Amino acid sequence: MAQRSEKRLSDAPAFVDLNDLSCNRVGGKILFATDDWFAEAENLLKPGPPEWHEGVFTSYGKWMDGWETRRKRIPGHDWCIIKLGIAGVIKGLDIDTSYFTGNYPPKASVQAACLEKDHIVFPERKSLMGSEAPADWIKKMAAATELWTDILPMTELRPGYPSTAHNFFCINNSQRWTHLRLNIYPDGGVARLRVYGLAVKDWTQITYKEIPVDLAAMENGGSAVGWSNMHYGHPRNLIAPGSAANMGDGWETARRLDRPSVLELGEDECLKVPGFEWSVIRLGTSRNYKKD
C-alpha cells in the first residue's frame, strides 16, 4: 500500500513546517561520532522517514535505520558532531527514536556552536559500521566541544513506538548556529534528528558574482508559510537546494474531491475545472539585488 510522504503529524508542533537545517539533502553532515557499532551516525540526517526491515541482520546485529552505539563499557557517554547544511536560527528539534524500542537512549541533550571555517580541526570521518573513534580523538573532540552552548538540556526520551517516537522540543534561542553536538545518555539508538529553523544569511557579504540572488531559496532564508494542501509533499521542497531526486521530492497535492465527475468544455472551449491549489513562500529578504 502506498505511504504518505513524511509531513506534519496531527499532534506535532507548528515548527515542523519550517526547514530542516541538518538533513543531508541540504548539505548536513556528520563530522565525528564516538561510536558507530550497530549503525552509522550518518543515518540521522537522511531526509526520508526511518524504515524497518524485518529479519535483516548485519555482521554486528539487527539492521537499524538510525545511529546506534553499543553498550558503554568505558567511562562517559556517546555523542556526535553535526555540521548543519544551512546555518541559521533553530526553532525546534525532533529526536526521532522510531523502531528503537528497547535500545533507545533514556536521555539526550543538544549543544550548539557558530564556528568560522577551520575553527576546529576534525579528524577524517570514515563512517564504518562496527567501528568506534580512537580514544585520543574522543578526548580531543570532547575538549573542543564540551563547552558549546546548551540549547536542549539533558532530557528524557521516549521509546520508538509510533505513538511515542517523535520527541519534539521547542528551542527558545535566537542565535545563528552552524554546528550541533547530539549527546545520548549513556548509549543506544536514534533514528533521525530533525533541526527545524530558518537560514540566517549575511547579506552584506553578497558578491557581484552571486547576483542575481534567489531570494526564495531555503539557504537564503526563504520559507513556506501557507498552502492549500500538502498530501504528498511539503511546499518547502520547492525552495530546497539542488534538483529534486524524484517526484516525491517536490510539492504535490491530493486530487480535489470537488472536481466534476465528467469534465466539460466552457463557452470559451476551455475545460471547466473548479478550484486551484496554492502555496505561499516568504522571501529571505526584501532587498533588491541587481547588477549595474
UniProtKB/TrEMBL annotation:
Coiled coil: none annotated. Residues 27-198, 221-286 form the Allantoicase domain. Pfam families: Allantoicase. GO terms for molecular function: allantoicase activity. GO terms for biological process: allantoin catabolic process. Belongs to the allantoicase family. This is Allantoate amidinohydrolase.
